[in-house]
Structure formats: structure tokens, C-alpha cells
Amino acid sequence: MKLYAALKDGDTYKGFILDVNGKKQRFNWNVSRDYSHPPQLFYADVDSDGKPEATVVFTLGTGTSLVAQEVHVVKPEQWKEISVPAADKAASAVVSSSISLDKDDVLLKLELTGPKPSKVTLRLPDRAEDGLKYFGSKAAIGAVTYYSVENNKLLADTSLMVGMTESVGTLKLEYNAGKTGMELGSIAFEPDERGEAIVEK
User: Fold this and answer.
1) How far is CA 183 from the centre of its chain?
2) pLDDT of the chain along its 201 residues, tens only?
3) What share of the chain is helix, strand, coil (3-state, %, to 5)?
4) Is the Cβ–Cβ distance between 152 and 73 less than 8 Å?
5) 77-86 burial, b for 16+ CB within 10 Å, e for fewer?
6) pTM of the entire structure?
7) Greatest CA separation found in the chain?
């Protein structure tokens, strides 16, 4: 599996040619030319149909507390691109959050719906003095997003942040094949090392 830029226009690649097993097809994917973050290629059966798909991950931009990526999954037999919901949107659809003050601490309550519903309370000790004006009323999803393929599974990690750019953990997504493309199969929250995460029963 190989990937070639079809056209270089200033700081942008306009279109790519995907080569799978010697057969080639052009796709109209436009991304910025970023030599420090080349496209990632995976060849694995992510939709469990018995045939490997070509998965391409582009890094669209990076910055302070920011990593934006996009993913494309192609069935090379028909050169058909499979739809994949963006990690931040898929996570936002099943994750709700609320932030409150508890004496000296800040409490972040998360509720994850979906196949395996769960509730998590994250306590940030001695942060109440920063106030809700800093923390806001809910967490932000998706400022940092990475896609990967492992063991024939399409995965995504997308950030959960409070305040301006303060990370408190990662939402870990696993995609499965759906009726019209890939869809969210499962999601779990993994807290950062600092703070204490308490799973409510």
C-alpha cells in the first residue's frame, strides 16, 4: 500500500493517489503540506468483512494543546470510501458532563451512554478558588485527536479538557462496522494521572 500526492499547490496537497497491490485510484483529499507529520497508512480488516481496507490518517494541524487529524477508510476492491464519524462528534453524541464546586475541590461528572454506559466523577483537589469562570460548566471534547489501527480495529483517542487548555483525560473510541459505514462501537474514559477518578456505582 502506497500513497502519492496528486498535485502540490503552494502549501497544500490537492488530491492523492492510493496504490493498493499495484492498483491505483485518485481521491480528492486536500490537506496542508506538513513534512513533520506525514500521512499514516494502515492495511487491515477494520470492518470485519474478511477483506482488508486501506486506512489513511492525515494530520491537519498541531499547536498548543491542539492536534487535528482526519481519517479515510477505503475498500480497495470497489475503491469505495467508507464513512467514519469524526471522533469528537461521535464522542460528543454519547458523553455529557457537568462541572461544580465542592468546598475546596472541583468536581467533573461524566456520563457515557452507548453499549457500556458508565459514570465517572473526577475530583480536582484544591481548585475551587479558580472558580467556574475558569472551568466553565462542562468539559470540552476533541482538541487533541489521534486515529490508529490496531488488531484490525479502527481506534481514536480524543481529549477531554476543562478551563482554557487543561487536559483531564482521554476518551478512547473503538469503531465497528455499521449499516452505512463505520460507527462508534464503544467508548471509555481514561483519566490523566493527576486527580482521582471515582467510578460511581
Assistant:
1) 13
2) 999 999 999 889 999 999 999 999 999 999 998 888 999 999 999 999 999 999 999 999 898 889 999 999 999 999 999 999 999 999 999 999 999 999 999 999 999 997 788 999 998 888 999 999 999 999 999 999 999 999 999 999 999 999 878 899 999 999 999 999 999 999 999 988 765 555 554
3) 5, 65, 30
4) no
5) eeeebbebbb
6) 0.92
7) 64
What is the C-alpha separation between 69 and 182, in angstroms, rounded?
Answer: 17
Q: What nine digits make up the cell of 30?
A: 486536500
Residue pair 158/91 in contact by the 8 Å Cβ criterion: yes
Q: Tell me phi and psi for residue 134, to 5 degrees.
A: -80, -45
- Residues present in the chain in total: 201
d(CA 131, CA 185): 36
* Chain centroid, CA 47 distance in Å: 18
